[in-house]
Input
Amino acid sequence: MAGLATAFGSGAMTNSIPEIEDAECILVTGSNTTENHPMIGSRILRAKEKGKKLIVVEPRRIHLAQFADIHARPRLGTDLAWINGLINIIFAEGWEDAEYIAARTEGVERLREKVAEYPPERVEAITGIDREMLHEMARLYATADRAAIVYAMGITQHTGGTDNVLALANLAMVTGNVGKRSAGVNPLRGQNNVQGACDMGGLPNVLTGYQSVTDPAVRKKFEQAWGLRSGLPAKPGLTVVEMANAAAEGAIKGMYVMAENPILSDPDANHTREALENLEFLVVQDIFLTETAQLADVVLPGSSFVERDGTVTSTDRSVQRMRKVIDPPGEARADWEIICEIARRCGGQGFRYASPGDVFAEMARLTPIYGGMSYERLENEWLRWPCRSADDPGTEFMHKDRFSRGKGVFTPVDYREPAEEPDEAYPFMLTTGRIMFHYHTGAQTRRSPSLEREVSENYVELNPQDAHGLGVHPGELIAVASRRGSIQVKAALTPTVPKGVVFIPFHFAESAANALTNRALDPVSKIPEFKVCAVSVARLVTL
Amino acid sequence: MDYRTVLTTCPYCGSGCGMYLPVLNGKLGEPIPAKTHPLSQGRLCIKGWSAHEHVASHDRLTKPLVKTGSGFKETTWDEALDLVVTRLLELRDRHGPDSLAFLVSAKCTNEENYLQQKLARAVFGTNNVDHCARL
Output
């Protein structure tokens, strides 16, 4: 999100989900859309049915690739090179939108100079993408009237992730594809309320609606609204991986974790476990005794998605109601009630609410992009933020006449190698992700009989040629190890992964992919490099 | 017989698909896709169709737990919350607000996330607030 915020002034999907199917060209990269966002994946397939063009840039031969006009398979971690390469071709062929660039953007000259360093032959050498294919990708994308970029964690979960996003924003702006229907730059968010958790100030540097904690006027507004006698903290806090590092060093002593499972979701699981074990006090609020909750000093039973009222914000900024259907089991309580009770017991003022609707109303008063929303309006209207006043119908696609920050800014960015490259000891590249049947750390889906019946154990995707070289048979339990840990996992032989690359889903605690991953961070977004690290693959017994 | 259907949002990925959940005499049934929903248009993926299943899992936590030498024991809300409040305030007073960290959640509602960051910032005085958006 940091990348889009720099380029456009706002970090979220620029366009809405229904618009996707009317894009003349869709560029999907770093997203296994049909498995991880199936209903968005089906929009992309519908676009194909309507005769639109589809470009998939993805090392794995994902389902969507079968339907693509072009499927480019870059080497892992080389995205920036092909994106800059496309922009270079677009300038060379005169396919840029000169009028748009002049009117809506700044910094194009520096971008032009930078991408000139990425001629097709160099891009081919770095990424492995054939130069003619690259040229055809540039033509399809740049000459389409409305072209949409769709991406997910395959772009961001790299040490150069923020730069990748900036590069995609450059590509979209060069071709005038931001601020119009069925175009834009569209990050797909992976959890039902990850967009909302960010919007609500669940981040170390901002209060609600991305209002900076370093801005004294912002802090004053919240201090007054919340009736605080002392000031709000002005220094940005730590991100999740930094928290684990600080806990390991002893700087963080106590943690309150609500419905998160960092043991499985964070990189380098052994390190995360040591960090949490080093805490003096850990309280976990969840619906299951997750791997993280097992380390807690106190576990508070929260409620599931059908046991409390509230709202969530989808990846396309739509704000929707969650509604209470049944009571929580036993003595479990709604999470909002638990937080308020803790706050009141700590002497906190302003934590008496009759219902989540009251909480929403307070939040909306303090949050300009949600300012026009209320539970009453959400009953009858479809609202996407920004929605600033009671008569604002919300925003289907953003940056229509101007960017949130005024002019869109081009940021020249350079390709850097991933933090860890394969070597003699660890000759394979590992990438991780999700599969159709499970979700994140599996706390919910692995307790769902229908889903567990589909896939009940972990596997590693291994190219058949690599398997042959290693003497690995289909279904054989093998060892995958990195500098940080090792797991035993069943081999699934498939040409989905290129030679030299293995893929492991991260849902499975018993052979956790994140025991292997690298906690090297993107310097700006602090996103860990889940999508590439070096591993070894070996048979357990050699016969 | 008490039968209702309640419109809500799928708990899994960020696509925001709409579903009705039926309740028969207090018992949760299988999701029914919301036909007129602008995002999902009457369809769900296999995770959506199974979204009700984990709710009734025997593994659900039903009482607060505190750690003992050998595992966990059940306790009352009063004791559990007392312990949480005492220990967190103690750590803040002894080591400062930034010795505490709070994880909000991409699986919780906007209201819960708003309250959790308000708790961290307004009550404990720290910006150490984050969640799994990066993961």
